[in-house]
Amino acid sequence: MASRSHIYRGATVEDLDPPPALSTNPSDSISTALMSAYERDYTHLTVVSQDTRALLGYLSIPRLKQLLKDGVVEDVDPVEKAMLKFRRKGNVYKVITMDTPLEELEDFFNGGVKGNDPQDFAVVTDTSRRFVLGVATRSDLEQFVRRRPA
Questions:
Q1: In this predicted model, what pLDDT tens digit does every residue of 33-67 receive, in sequence order?
Q2: 131 DSSP assignment
Q3: Which of 30, 46, 70, 86 has a 20 to 30 Å separation from 56 between CA atoms?
Q4: Is the dihedral of CA 51, 36, 47, 129 positive or negative?
């Protein structure tokens, strides 16, 4: 992906038309989460609190499949055992909204929040970070560039 604004021409995350986020709870079984992801062809699921709907972390389906293969987790285990938790204390998170320019999204994918951690996906929220609106992936951005006329 070339990081030049003329490629995106003012497009925002909303132009990617990200699918709604599919969330699971920490207590749900891994098999249930995996089935939901497969049904919708999702590579990442957000994990939210059953009580408060607060965003707790996410499940990377490719990583989950590897954990299952390696015997680290079983399909009957709760999602909590395999999820990647967001570290909240002392961390600054890049807020990605529907209005975020695609150049910023590309920067996020290439360098993460602090510029040294590449990311495969972004949780798209409202500006106050209260609601998860969708998930945008590096693949979504690459497909957008391929579809867009030069």
A1: 999 999 998 888 999 888 887 788 889 999 999 99
A2: S
A3: 70
A4: negative
List, as own/partner pairs, every contact residues 104-108 make where C-beta atoms lie below 8 angstroms and the sequence separation is at least 24, other chains included: 105/13, 105/136, 105/141, 106/1, 106/3, 106/8, 106/141, 107/3
- Residue 135: phi and psi, rounded to 5, are -130, 130
Residue with tokens 């604004």: 5
User: Is this structure's pTM higher than 0.90?
Assistant: no
Token duo for residue 142: 């690459």
Centroid of chain to Cα 65: 17
Structural element, H or E, at residue 23:
strand 23-24
Q: Extract the tokens encoding 130.
A: 């209260």
pLDDT score of 70 more than 50: yes
138, 109, 45, 69: CA torsion to nearest 10:
80
Q: What is the mean pLDDT of residues 71-87?
A: 93
Amino acid identity of 140?
Answer: D
57-61's contacts with Cβ under 8 Å and 24+ in sequence apart are 57/83, 57/84, 57/85, 57/86, 58/83, 58/84, 58/86, 58/121, 58/123, 59/24, 59/33, 59/83, 59/84, 60/84, 60/120, 61/34, 61/37
Q: Is it the case that residue 73 has pLDDT exceeding 90? A: yes
User: Cα separation of 39 and 69, whole Å?
Assistant: 20
